[in-house]
User: Fold Anthocyanin acyltransferase from Setaria italica.
Amino acid sequence: MEAQWLVLPQLQYILFFEGDHQQPPFDTVVQSLRSSLAATLATFAPLAGKLVHLAETGDVAIRCSASDEGVRFGVAESDADVRRLADEEEHDVQTFERLVPELDMTLLPAPVLAVQATRLEGGGVALGVTVHHAVADGQSLRRWRFVEAWAAACCGDTPPEPPPCFDRSRVRLPGGEELARSVLRKYTPDLPVATTSPVLQEDRLRFTRWTYTLDAQHIERLKQRIVRLGEAHGAPLASFVAVVALAWTCFVRCWSIPADEDAFLFFFADVRDRLDPPAGAGYFGACLSGCLVAALPARDLHGERALAAAASAAQGTIGEMVADPAGGWEFLRIPDAVPMERLMNVPGSSGFRAYEAGDFGWGMPRRVALVRMNQDGQVELVRARDGAGVQVSVSMLQREHVDAFKSLFLDLLE
Assistant:
């Protein structure tokens, strides 16, 4: 499951802190973050290591060695205003990029973690985190187990339970280690060079990104509307399904996909506790199965029943994943199977507790933002700051597509 991520390496997030009376001076913040990170890495040791290519076997491994230089901790200053960056719906992409550490992950040995603390105008602080995706997935980072442990150490609190587990034997797929080597040969044939997938080669600085937060009332009305239309069956409608149905409907319409052509939706499922035997909630690594929603004609995502049709299709795919949790583990086959210009990709989850986990002792972040959104038509979800809503971010190359998406999104919430 992790071998594929060598060609999709970076997870990058920023936590924006406002700089109010709770927050100590910047130098104190940096000292606290640095010392608590060192303490946390004693438990999350692989994050202090490097990804290395073992030429004699063809494997890629995580090497933890005292001879390595450890985790880079950068300190910077910016004249960008924290309130503008945290409050504006449209992302300042170029500024965001400067607030996260850049790692060269294209040649092994490669570091797997770097952080950057930036003093912002108005007394604010931006904490940028870059992690190699072959070492951590959404549960590990974006459900924020590592950040939560780091924040607990910074506050002097007891680390969260369960402790992280790095035992790769907990994830068992037919073929074992030879399967992993075959994946490496297939997707990274030039190791120790790990070239990024051509799908993600577009200049990400040209993307327009927009973020909107749906509160609990928005989501409840959306669920009621979908259920009333009568096409969402089975388990009670999850917030994830309702929000994804809304976003997918808007995506298909703003991209003007012809009515007789199929539209596609892709998202990941965390399968730690669905494997047999389960890997366990504490498993720290990549343990994801890709879910490709069966193609729907674009016409089905127009009109009054569109939201219900989208939700029903998403629920059906989730049901297939539950029946065969590891069935979608090789998600990199999907770009060869569907036209990417008609695919909406949702890599995040409304269950990711970014705000709650990111309290380092001076309050929750004012905003958490995903920096690395590479695909045209990508939608990122995270649980909202209030703990009840969902934060939705969309990334598109064409501004007119974003404007149309935003207009449709807000209209359908009414």
